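hi! just following up on the protien thing from before. the input was this:
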Amino acid sequence: MNGLTNIDYSNYMPQGNTAPSVTTEAMVSRQAQEVQAAMVIAKNFPRDVYAAFERIKKACERKLLAESAVYEYPRGGSKVSGPSIRLAEALAQNWGNIDYGIMELEQKAGESSVMAYAWDLETNTRQTKIFTVKHERKAKGTINKLNDPRDIYELVANQGARRVRACILGVIPGDIVDAAVDMCQKTLINGHQEPLEDRLRNAFSLFKKEFGVTKEMIEEYVGSNVDAFTEQDFLKIGRIYTSLRDGMAKKEDYFNVKVSSATKSKAEEDFQKQKEQKESNKKAGDPVNGDSGDQSR
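and the predicted 3d structure came back as:
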């Protein structure tokens, strides 16, 4: 009556997901069994808190760990600092009975859905963070799409490491974390055999090689000449290095990075040449200068 034709709507809605394959079901079942077994073992062999703390103390006495234990970056006129990814991993390893890592939940065109987690199997305390990683990398003001599986894997691992750090710190007691940071600071102050001048020279070389940061930029940030640097200043630039290396901040967050004159002056030079050419033409007989009036006489 209304002129509409009969339409078959039986296939109008999209079909639901097909049943999971046998391989997928087997993998899920195996993972569930592994988690159950790990929890049983953790319950049967609980951590010795005192022994775990002694292991953490021993780890914090290692110079290499202490040097990368804390990150620091500026935000809103103040400085934010905290335990680094490396220290969080060391805490989880020595505290014991903790499962942590990242898991790629889904990968589709241009992005990955990822979960970072840390699970205290003994107390059943768990922290998870689900986030999306776009398959692109920003460099020199341009965004490059990533297609190489290895590049995508490294990008996901790098972005996931920061979330794993937060998850680990969420399941380990805060007083243990604070004590570890303090012990690492003591190791840095008391554990160096090289003179401060040599350590500063090596640090400047690393900053220049890896991030293009010069000694003058560091001096400007600290607020004094390198000859006046103290042990605390050395610790400060060490935390900056850790933050840049772990991707927690950019060098522009700390240093006055000036655009190279070679990169910005090309257009300026062309403009200046055109301006000078116009001035030269005017002086050579441009009517604006009144030369044509003299010729008419």
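Residues 43-184 form one domain.
The radius of gyration is 30 Å.
cheers
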